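Form 7-S
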Amino acid sequence: MLLIADAGSTKTEWFYDGKTFVTQGINPFQQSEEVIASILAELEGLCPQKIRFYGAGCTPEKALIVRRLLAERFAAADIEVYSDLLAAAHALCGHGKGVACILGTGSNSCLYDGEKIVQNTPALGYILGDEGGGAVLGKLFVNALLKGRLDKSVVDDFTTYYCQTCFPNADSPTADLKLILADIIERVYRRPLANRFLASLSVFVGKHRDNAAVRSLIKQNFAAFLDNNIKPYKHNEIAFTGSIAYHYADILRETAEEKGYSIKKITKSPMAELVKFYTVGTSPLTP
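Output:
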């Protein structure tokens, strides 16, 4: 029995016995071994013979940690751990050549030769990089909001939305921006997983995508990704997977066309294509 995992910072999608299900995200750069082990404990009752785990933050060093934790949970399984970027390459390119991109909570990209990744622009995380991803979009939005660059209608709607979402037990359904600013600073600088919090704001951003100022922020985010991450590959055909790419597909395509790129495919998740990769034909990762 095969178990496939596609793990991001926000959620992990699993495939087993013909079905998919979701758990909390797994990222060994952001979570302790104890936290990851507790997430894996939710898989009680599964008895896979083979595990192919693709994950954000699974560098060669961190992949060893994840593999060990999986082995402790599933002692009899044949286990391999790879980066989430290879998942994107396998899902978007299969056994062909191409540029594969991830736009989810974070972002990443690579040039793939049909068997392996041959070039990668470092993602650098949401503080130093991750252009195009949800966390950076949230950061751009908060900056514009709190520095007075957005329309009053957007600000007023966000105030209500934020308080209902983040202060659901508050006596008042609304609050001023000073209270919101203090809470945002707390969540970004003092609490763990700030990238997830910032990316969660993309839900609100998407509702106002037709507002000129908000749309400009979205396009700015995508343009930065294309300029900083895709340009070095010198390929004009690209493909995307991830929630941000999927939900903002129209704006992403528009921005890409303006930059001279052609988008071949956009998927919300790589899982469906990964299942095909392992069940149709011969995968380079399996005998």
